[in-house]
Amino acid sequence: MLRSWYLLCCLWALHLSGAGEAAAANREIDTAHYRERVKSMFYHAYNNYLENAFPYDELRPLTCDGQDTWGSFSLTLIDALDTLLILGNVSEFQRVVNVLQEGVDFDIDVNASVFETNIRVVGGLLSAHLLSKKAGVEVEAGWPCSGPLLRMAEEAARKLLPAFQTPTGMPYGTVNLLHGVNPGETPVTCTAGIGTFIVEFATLSHLTGDLVFEDVARKALKALWKNRSDIGLVGNHIDVVTAKWVAQDAGIGAGVDSYFEYLVKGAILLHDEELMSMFLDYNKAIRNYTKFDDWYLWVQMYKGTVSMPVFQSLEAYWPGLQSLIGDINNAMQTFLNYYTVWKQFGGLPEFYNIPQGYTVEKREGYPLRPELIESAMYLYRATRDPTLLELGRDAVESIEKISKVECGFATIKDLRDHRLDNRMESFFLAETVKYLYLLFDPNNFIHNDGSAFDVVPMPYGECILGAGGYVFNTEAHPIDPAALYCCRKQKEEQWEVEDLMREFFFQKKSKKSTFKRTADHGGRESQTASADASSESSRGEMNPEKNTKRRISLLSCPNQPFTSKLSVLGQVFLDNT
């Protein structure tokens, strides 16, 4: 049972009902109507991608063609896959799974963003893998601990590992998928590009049994923690070789954002008190030095003096993150500030000058980002405040009115005059549409409160999946936290090695005698010959002719005496003692 206090905060924030406000909200906003509007938005964008842009990464909606942007992965298809299931399209989910298996190749000579490849490709494939059975895909034996999408995610993640081979453990920002890190690659990486791996990489380690992924992600997180300033803040960009801060602006927005997000979500996913403690310490420093009247400014990381009095659209994830730790009141106050900016422009400009109350030059665009909608979805689950549905309604109306074109939805280049840009980012289908749909769909399986679940038989016991509590990565790909505890490969491999050791020993000695172990008073195990094959140690050693492979349910966490654990090594080196 998940008993950690921070997980309880998460479940409380996601599923707490507001006192009598749900009915009022539904009367004011026709959620079924807007749910269908959102679904239509998705298919207008998705179908145009398939018709005009696939297999390129992204759609160019003004010219009705495609372009590769983040590595030539058919990225929009990967990013949209779990959204298909959330919208209820099982048949298209199944078709796309087959298309990806046949068409995506990571063994290519391409320079790829380590950060973007992780959150979009690795995260998208992991989420789709864990949702495959629910989508009616015929899964292979051993799922969710094996499967083609899991192998694809692992392959993609391994291509990123060379980036972590630095003196500090903090990764380079770019890696060549075929050759590794280029010799001339810059060592300067943004904070988010270092601290946004624990959700995907820990999931990979738990499902595959290979600890390298979680290990490098943790090392990178702790390196940032180690290099925080004396007042508890981190900057925006750091040299991953020397650990020297290159950009010393501290805030919650671009370049830093998902580092804080992954401390909280990693803590929830892994029941990790250390990660939560790190975030809570950061949170104190952020409140002390960057918060002014429910806005968050940018400050100098060592002095705490204001360096940029601006609000960035990427910061709008913060109220949703606050809701995950139960800080609902502060979350709502900040959300309402951000919502006033949306109302002013019909979207969130990339930069907004707070004292002047207007956009910042050359930062007037809105690329259909999801962050404010994401926060609305989390907060609505926690409060049922109808204001949050109003934001969803306004978002649908604005995006359709300003951004919709014949071949999809275009980035808004300037919110002042509604000029458009020829790009539709993959996160529009992965995040923006998904969070809108979930805001208007209170009965979606993603919102499961644990009252329904699936029981999956495993070689080592039964596994409970689909019970809710999904943890979204920063690209809105939901990870089922229960799946991380279905795969006890590390323990199973340990037992298999020990079985092989015993088999080797008994094959070698069976012609001479059989053995039993007795513990001497020093806690060591002595070995004596015996003609009686029934003499067995407390570990249950048997005559090799009768020995059958032991099956232990790894979900029962078997515990061995210390001397019994050492006995295996004693067998291996018996001839030399």
From TrEMBL:
<feature type="binding site">
    <location>
        <position position="474"/>
    </location>
    <ligand>
        <name>Ca(2+)</name>
    </ligand>
</feature>
<dbReference type="GO" id="GO:1904380">
    <property type="term" value="P:endoplasmic reticulum mannose trimming"/>
</dbReference>
<dbReference type="GO" id="GO:0016020">
    <property type="term" value="C:membrane"/>
</dbReference>
<keyword id="KW-0732">Signal</keyword>
<keyword id="KW-0479">Metal-binding</keyword>
<protein>
    <recommendedName>
        <fullName>alpha-1,2-Mannosidase</fullName>
        <ecNumber>3.2.1.-</ecNumber>
    </recommendedName>
</protein>
<keyword id="KW-0325">Glycoprotein</keyword>
<dbReference type="GO" id="GO:0044322">
    <property type="term" value="C:endoplasmic reticulum quality control compartment"/>
</dbReference>
<dbReference type="GO" id="GO:0006986">
    <property type="term" value="P:response to unfolded protein"/>
</dbReference>
<feature type="compositionally biased region" description="Basic and acidic residues">
    <location>
        <begin position="538"/>
        <end position="547"/>
    </location>
</feature>
<dbReference type="GO" id="GO:1904154">
    <property type="term" value="P:positive regulation of retrograde protein transport, ER to cytosol"/>
</dbReference>
<keyword id="KW-0106">Calcium</keyword>
<dbReference type="GO" id="GO:0005975">
    <property type="term" value="P:carbohydrate metabolic process"/>
</dbReference>
<feature type="signal peptide">
    <location>
        <begin position="1"/>
        <end position="24"/>
    </location>
</feature>
<feature type="compositionally biased region" description="Polar residues">
    <location>
        <begin position="525"/>
        <end position="537"/>
    </location>
</feature>
<feature type="active site">
    <location>
        <position position="371"/>
    </location>
</feature>
<dbReference type="InterPro" id="IPR036026">
    <property type="entry name" value="Seven-hairpin_glycosidases"/>
</dbReference>
<feature type="active site" description="Proton donor">
    <location>
        <position position="350"/>
    </location>
</feature>
<dbReference type="GO" id="GO:0005509">
    <property type="term" value="F:calcium ion binding"/>
</dbReference>
<feature type="active site">
    <location>
        <position position="257"/>
    </location>
</feature>
<dbReference type="Pfam" id="PF01532">
    <property type="entry name" value="Glyco_hydro_47"/>
</dbReference>
<dbReference type="InterPro" id="IPR001382">
    <property type="entry name" value="Glyco_hydro_47"/>
</dbReference>
<comment type="function">
    <text>Involved in the endoplasmic reticulum-associated degradation (ERAD) pathway that targets misfolded glycoproteins for degradation in an N-glycan-dependent manner. May initiate ERAD by promoting the first mannose trimming step of ERAD substrates, from Man9GlcNAc2 to Man8GlcNAc2. Seems to recognize and bind to exposed hydrophobic regions in target proteins.</text>
</comment>
<comment type="similarity">
    <text>Belongs to the glycosyl hydrolase 47 family.</text>
</comment>
<dbReference type="InterPro" id="IPR044674">
    <property type="entry name" value="EDEM1/2/3"/>
</dbReference>
<keyword id="KW-0378">Hydrolase</keyword>
<dbReference type="GO" id="GO:0004571">
    <property type="term" value="F:mannosyl-oligosaccharide 1,2-alpha-mannosidase activity"/>
</dbReference>
<keyword id="KW-0326">Glycosidase</keyword>
<keyword id="KW-0256">Endoplasmic reticulum</keyword>
<keyword id="KW-0834">Unfolded protein response</keyword>
<dbReference type="InterPro" id="IPR012341">
    <property type="entry name" value="6hp_glycosidase-like_sf"/>
</dbReference>
<feature type="active site" description="Proton donor">
    <location>
        <position position="116"/>
    </location>
</feature>
<feature type="region of interest" description="Disordered">
    <location>
        <begin position="516"/>
        <end position="548"/>
    </location>
</feature>
